[in-house]
Design a protein that fits this description.
The complex is a heterodimer of chains A (353) and B (87). With 353 residues, chain A is mainly β. Helix content of chain A is 1%, strand content 42%. Chain A has a single domain, classed as YVTN repeat-like/Quinoprotein amine dehydrogenase (Methylamine Dehydrogenase, Chain H, 7 Propeller). In chain A, strands 3-2-1-28 form a four-stranded antiparallel β-sheet, with no helix packed on it. Chain A has a four-stranded antiparallel β-sheet with strand order 4-5-6-7, with no helix packed on it. Chain B has one domain: Beta-grasp domain (Ubiquitin-like (UB roll)), CATH 3.10.20.30. With 87 residues, chain B is an alpha+beta fold. In chain B, a hairpin with a 2-residue loop joins strand 3 and strand 4. Classes of the chains: A mainly beta (353), B alpha+beta (87). Chain A: It comes from Chitinimonas taiwanensis DSM 18899. Chain A: This is BNR/Asp-box repeat-containing protein. Chain A: InterPro entries: WD40/YVTN_repeat-like_dom_sf, Xyloglucanase_GH74. Chain B: InterPro entries: Beta-grasp_dom_sf, Mopterin_synth/thiamin_S_b.
């Protein structure tokens, strides 16, 4: 049982722990700093800070938060005459080979073989000519928010870039290919809506037991790929269920099940009519369950960011947190929700540990 | 030698109080400090050596964000402060 939740908030790292069935705030680190990404690998925790004055930072704990050390942050190279400056580490992932990956804004992918003490830019992605087509989604620059490491082979990575599509390497980053067949972009002119390099996958998730199955919460719809990214199929939940949102969590073992946290269209980014719910499918997206037992009644203005919904390793318990400072635990696959707090800072990311 | 003072928000990275170091520009003087306190670098400078957007540089009390490479006198007082923007 994973009985710890790490929360990356606008005001630091919050650690919730379960003791005798009660969840409580157990630790608070980096008070006042925005946490842009976090990662737990056993007792080894990484926390990326986005400091508005002093730049992005990365901290490492080897003992589940007891002690911290500041390690290095990636550095972007000169880009012709431009001098891109790292805004934030947006996502972190570690493979079973111990290699740590950082996806950033601007959209550089970085590799570390020493737990973040040094970083190397993945040049083969940075030099792709398609990068000239990428653009920011919610930020001034494009960014890498999803790094999926294949459970069978840590040299195979899938990236989600807003706005720059879905990319995969099979050789540890030496070469890359786009995988956006079937995605479409309502925010582009009609003749450009299928252009692969401008797609905006808000978040990607992969089934661990059947890794050829992927899920995508895209800017304008939910999609699933069951053919190892050869194509994407739009799921299109029936109205009034919403197709917009940021987060998706894949069931780790059941390739037909996933959860989404929808919101109303990109111009508003709030629950439609204040109706806040989690969307679940258990049949590959043919039908959906609207889960809201224990979630606040309308009007509720909660928005869940792309790293704000996770499922545990068993696929039974979920954790979800919002930009308006609530944290919920979802039991029985999200059938019942319990709010652990409604008094938190805005939450950007969370993880079981 | 110019005297450098740093915002109290960086006190976990270097000793409190002004530091007097050799240097004929704010950048040169700062580089002297960074020899002893290398972790401070990324807090004040970006990866291309530019002063971070929301760090304020004062030279003898005057806000001079463009002054990193300006010649300074031996008696100059240099302050690296946290701007109120960027929070």
């Amino acid at each position: 049982m994973q009985n710890t939740i790490l929360l990356g908030s606008r005001k630091g790292l919050l650690v919730y722990g379960e003791r005798a069935g009660q969840w409580q705030l157990a630790q608070h680190h980096f008070s006042g700093a925005q946490v842009s990404a976090l990662l737990a690998d056993g007792a080894r925790w990484w926390v990326a800070l986005r400091d508005g004055h002093f730049g992005p930072k990365l901290h490492l704990s080897e003992d589940a938060g007891a002690c911290w050390q500041e390690v290095a942050v990636p550095a972007l190279p000169a880009d012709g005459e431009k001098r891109p400056i790292l805004d934030q580490i947006w996502t972190l992932a570690v493979g079973r080979d111990g290699v740590l990956w950082a996806g950033c804004i601007p959209a550089g992918l970085f590799r570390s073989g020493d737990a973040g003490r040094s970083w190397q830019l993945v040049e083969a992605l940075w030099q792709r000519p398609e990068r000239a087509q990428w653009f920011g989604g919610g930020f001034d620059d494009a960014g890498i928010h999803s790094i999926l490491i294949d459970p069978r082979d840590p040299a195979q990575l899938v990236l989600g870039i807003s706005c720059g599509g879905v990319w995969r390497t099979r050789d540890g980053g030496a070469s890359w290919a786009l995988h956006c067949q079937g995605l479409w972009a309502a925010y582009m002119p009609e003749e450009e809506k299928n252009t692969e390099a401008v797609q905006d996958p808000h978040r990607l998730a992969q089934c661990q037991s059947k890794p050829e199955v992927f899920w995508c919460q895209h800017h304008n719809g939910q999609f699933r790929s069951c053919d190892d990214l050869a194509s994407w199929q739009e799921l299109a939940p029936p109205a009034p269920l919403s197709s917009f949102g940021f987060a998706v969590a894949a069931h780790p073992h059941d390739p037909l099940s996933a959860w989404f946290a929808p919101a109303e269209v990109d111009q508003r980014r709030i629950p439609r009519d204040g109706d806040f719910y989690v969307l679940r499918t258990r049949d590959g997206g043919r039908t959906f369950d609207k889960l809201q037992l224990g979630l606040p009644a309308a009007p509720a203005f909660h928005l869940v960011y792309r790293h704000g919904l996770v499922v545990d390793a068993a696929g039974q318990r979920l954790a979800m947190a919002s930009t308006t400072g609530s944290l919920w635990l979802g039991e029985a696959g999200g059938e019942r929700w319990q709010r652990l707090s409604a008094e938190l800072p805005p939450i950007y990311c969370l993880s079981f540990a | 030698m110019p005297t450098l003072t740093f915002t109290r928000h960086l006190q976990h990275l270097l000793p409190s109080g002004p530091l007097t170091v050799p240097g004929d520009t704010p950048r040169a003087a700062l580089e002297q400090v960074l020899r002893d306190y290398p972790l401070l670098r990324s807090y004040l400078l970006d990866e291309h050596g530019g002063l971070r957007k929301h760090v304020a540089l004062f030279i003898d009390g005057e806000l001079r964000r463009d002054g990193m490479d300006q010649p300074v006198a031996a008696t100059t007082k240099i302050d690296f402060m946290q701007a109120l923007s960027g929070g």
